[in-house]
Design a protein that fits this description.
With 116 residues, the chain is of the alpha+beta class. The protein is 47% helix and 11% strand.
Length: 116
């Protein structure tokens, strides 16, 4: 079970990636008949809606990370943060409900979630 704010952060990250991608050359070359500006505006609205649901503390950390990094949330695979590729402290990765708490990587500061 994912922490509710972690779910929001992952959704925000996905929406931001989509907004970035639709402005790219691949979408233009594919000839998709859509107004990029209109879609980008709608995605921005959805991002703002999700950001408004974050607690003030989480939103402040999210904004600090987003200023420096494209990805705010990173998975942890086999004990390694895939944001900075540094080993995460093992004491944090073994509890059964480890994704039910909002956690951050001690090295890069990104929000993290465990996949294994």
């Amino acid at each position: 079970m994912l922490h509710p704010e972690l779910e929001l952060l992952l959704e925000i990250q996905d929406l931001q990636t989509l907004r970035r991608d639709i402005a790219g050359e691949e979408y233009a070359a594919a000839g998709i008949p859509v107004s990029v500006d209109a879609v980008a505006e709608r995605l921005s609205e959805r991002i703002a809606e999700r950001e408004a649901q974050l607690s003030p503390r989480t939103k402040a950390r999210y904004e600090r990370i987003a200023q420096r990094r494209e990805r705010v949330v990173a998975p942890v695979l086999h004990g390694v943060c895939y944001g900075c590729f540094v080993q995460v402290a093992t004491s944090k990765g073994h509890d059964k409900e480890r994704n039910s708490e909002l956690r951050v990587c001690e090295s890069c500061g990104r929000f993290i979630y465990y996949t294994d």
